[in-house]
Design goal:
Rossmann fold; alpha/beta; 2 domains; homotetramer; seven-stranded mixed sheet; 341 residues; 11 helices; six-stranded parallel sheet
């Protein structure tokens, strides 16, 4: 086996950061160097995540560029708005940066500023960033210095939609994405709205029509299929910790059939280890928890020309840390599935 | 106060039946006579629902027509398929029947047999049945002998859609209803798929495009608005016990605006005690739990001509027992809100 | 009916405060005047608790003595440490104060300062405070100006233990109380440890041997039975929102039998509307949720001379707001059960 | 690496059976032959547990001795009462049997029949069975033909208690074990009492003083420490899927100190990979989920001579499948940690 690739995680105390460490810990080609987490500096990883006790005994430290430079690859698992202040210097010094946040996903600064409601601090890096949807962008990812790891909702919507749009089996307009997410998607933070007493026994739609993942989905569909797309996206918070479940309505294109849809999935995903498409079976969220899979199922309705797609991912794995490791594997020449369950 | 109306509940051991008893217990005009529940016969209500201990000490008994005839009004809270064998004799003997199940909701026997997958045992009663959507059918309900209490999903979809279709503010085609339900909607039964270990931490869409509430929604929208309607309905099971949350997409009709939509809700619901429509606020499921409210919120999107409606009800209350009591109140001349929180 | 008693709630935005408002709202002898909540001032009650929408439309305001003086009775539903700064002036001005927090429960200032880890700001009020365990202290409560409403854990432990200690049916030493609480017991606050992702799927014991409810239980057992008591108390946080379940081990005194134990419960609680003691049946938490009951069950083991008691309450009702209303009813001459389900 | 050991699982459709397959799937020395599950015969593993889709595509089949004889080691993951009818013929034919159920744990047939409420079908095998508590019985396990894998509750109680009793740091009498379990402990079955609507938002103690794990704990403590032990054990069902949390009270022996207790844990467990004992820290259930660890924490109270121990395990891992694999590893000469996270 080749020599170990040094890795550090900035924002290691969050849910995505900790999940990333769970994968890196069993990665046969990675070495874990530093855990940066300003607010938890001085605490151990096991203080926050007791499952690590005896398995990875490390202490969080405040971020320092110098320390980060020890590693070959730096993962940024930060709230949006922070990565763009840290990434430039790392890139400049030749490091590979995989950003799990949203700072480098939108090519258009104006869109970023509209949906993220802040100025972009490193717009010059945007042209450099490669969108890390591994099943569709593998070649570009392999030589990337800065990977914008896809958002969790976008991953759950893009993987089922892309083959069908690409093959012109659905209309590019009037796509309706209704998605449900567990609370870990909001990150590890003190917030009454995320408390057990508030979340449990409830459901709510939020940021209806203005969620920052909406332009990300639109941009990627358009970029990768060359069509102008119009869609609606309504995320919901449901009482569970992990996972995203998306139910998508689209209009079948002339001549599209159930068989052709299945064939499209076969064409694009037969060789892909992490997409499981099902015939005659609607996925369940529990089938993907703690795994790097995206499960896809669908049904067509001829009378109304409608297609209903359902997809499921673990937001912290395929929707964040697992996909980040998949990108890491592509960049550093490991098997795409290394360390991923 | 007038003399007490005698009531009995058939299927009193189920979740809807027990919920009904919670309301009847504090109803100032109702007397609780008999609790029928074949499978739980001999057990007490408190054996199954310990909250009743010391408040309503009654024992379940097997159904008997004779015993049921003691009451003025018989509530049927049975799995679909059973009410249609029990209702005819009660009606014949002059009793008022309020059926919380699906047997008398579809006017068209063929539709019933297609979606419920069984023959209808009492098709001659169908013309007699009044659909018990209290906010829309109050006059007919007042003189009904057989009320078909609406399904839980239909209630959550009909209340937001009816005023808008009626006022031609949305197109009658391409309506997309995505709804999430707690597990109590499936009834109280031994079923691995409803077990805590299976439901918790998961989500799944089910009966995609073939749920028996689909024709009920369609029929009622068409009956009450006189338009031909096409819609999609995808129900989901989420890890919670009570409640339904529906997110509905519709296309705005020419000239429809946010103001007009709000005005439509005002027109139809201002005087209605159990519909709360919100301006600039998306409802949360927890706001309606154990209450007889339907909460409605919405947003319009001019660029795409789209309307997004969200609604929330407690499936056991406004979606079952509460609405049944509302109908009971209408029929027997009580205040519509009597005993309803 | 007598003229309405004016009430205000300080700390009305917390879970106990809101629960109190749910009871006061249907209390036929109470008027709700002011909702004080500094941190939520300006928000409406329905903003935080959407179930109140259309039922109690009030806005939180910062606490002001002047405004509070409008009411006859002021409920304090504050984190410990705050009531003792507010109560003195209210008492001075002749108001009745019912404190749901811990500031006035311990008679011994040193104990307070040890377990609550702060100085007591109003030690002179301690002799005035009446411990509001309604089933045991009703006479004193009726003429109290300051009621120290019992803690949630103490209520769950005291109600089963008091009759048995009083009747010398168990030894006063070596009592072991292991209790589990839902997260609402910790109050409504932004705290990572209370977040859904942390609480769900986990359990932990906390403040083992040093919880502030330990001296409260000990003091009350000793005060009301005249015996020196030694006990252990271990609270646990479990993944649920409401409720306390306590499993208590005690040593049977010479001659104690299952019959005598049941007789003791009968003697003290037969006439009490809110204690349900069960023979041959272990209580379940769900039997008391949203109700003001304390359910008690037990088993004796002759070989080991052991008694196992299990008790269940809703921490926000019998363990807080419900018991507060019970005390309010005693003081103002209402039926003890008024407004309590 | 040595040649693969063939394994089959009887009762492969249950939660413990499926968990076992998750470990065997990544075991570098095991081959998975047959999945026996009478009630699910004909279904695939992925039908019941969608996480296996694409990872282990096998179909359940009815149990047949012939088919089972293909394997070197047969795991029995059956409801109690079934293993004792299957094990004898397998043992006779020279197979190694690891039974995850309770049929071979109690040496005394009378105790078995009292607590399991049925006759024992293979009492002659009892002397042969080795109790599979790997940390304490490794030598005997290595040469066992029939391993009685410990119960989940017993594992959580025995690991903290054994070193202390062995070192005479606690009294052997008056030990009080209060434990909480997730619902998966009851197995995968259609049972109203295990349904989401019943379990969620509730807690209850059950089989107080008569649970079949009580004699198992007592027997093992006595066998391994040579002392007569008296104890109480009260299990509780809490609203979570996995895990056991035990809070244990014991009386400190003369001269016992916190240091000596910690030293005892060090003596017995320093070299053991799956026991993590903590100083000054109470374990949390989430720290052991999906892991094979038993976490132990404790506090001593000098005034009352009391020791409070808290322990946490995943009932399906260290309390069932993980410990079974640990035993498998010991018997077949693999590293004790092979395939265990």
């Amino acid at each position: 086996m080749k020599k170990l690739v040094g890795t550090s995680v900035v924002g290691a105390s969050g849910y995505s950061g900790a999940e990333l460490l769970r994968f890196l810990l069993r990665h046969r080609g990675a070495r874990i160097d530093r855990l940066f987490a300003n607010a938890s500096a001085g605490k151990t990883l096991a203080d926050l995540y007791p499952d690590f006790r005896g398995r990875l005994e490390k202490t969080f430290e405040p971020y320092s560029l110098e320390a980060a430079l020890e590693s070959d690859c730096v993962f940024l698992a930060l709230p949006s708005g922070e990565a763009m202040t840290i990434a430039p210097k790392l890139i400049e010094r030749g490091k590979t940066v995989i950003d799990l946040g949203g700072d480098f996903r939108l090519r258009d600064v104006a869109q970023y500023e509209k949906f993220y409601k802040r100025k972009h601090a490193a717009p010059n890096l945007l042209p450099l960033a490669v969108y890390g949807l591994a099943e569709w962008n593998a070649e570009k990812i392999k030589s990337a210095k800065l990977v914008a790891n896809p958002g969790c909702y976008p991953t759950s919507a893009l993987l089922p939609l892309l083959p069908l749009l690409k093959e012109r089996l659905i209309e590019p307009t009037n796509i309706v994405i209704v998605a449900m997410s567990g609370v870990s998607g909001a990150g590890r933070k003190a917030d009454i709205d995320l408390s057990f007493a508030e979340v449990s026994d409830s459901v709510k739609a939020y940021r209806v029509g203005e969620h920052q993942h909406l332009p990300e989905i639109k941009q990627t569909l358009e970029d990768l299929t060359g069509q102008k797309v119009s869609l609606s996206f309504v995320p919901h918070l449901i009482p569970t910790t992990r996972g995203i479940y998306a139910t998508i309505h689209a209009t079948l294109a002339q001549g599209a059939t159930s068989e052709k849809i299945f064939a499209a999935f076969e064409r694009y995903y037969r060789e892909k280890p992490f997409v499981r498409y099902l015939r005659d079976r609607i996925p369940e969220l529990k089938g993907v928890l703690r795994l790097n899979f995206c499960d896809i199922g669908f049904r067509t309705f001829d009378e109304t020309n409608q297609l209903i797609l359902c997809s499921a991912i673990d937001n912290l794995v395929k929707g964040a840390a697992g996909q980040a490791v998949q990108n890491f594997n592509l960049i550093f020449g490991f098997d795409e599935t290394e360390s991923l369950p």
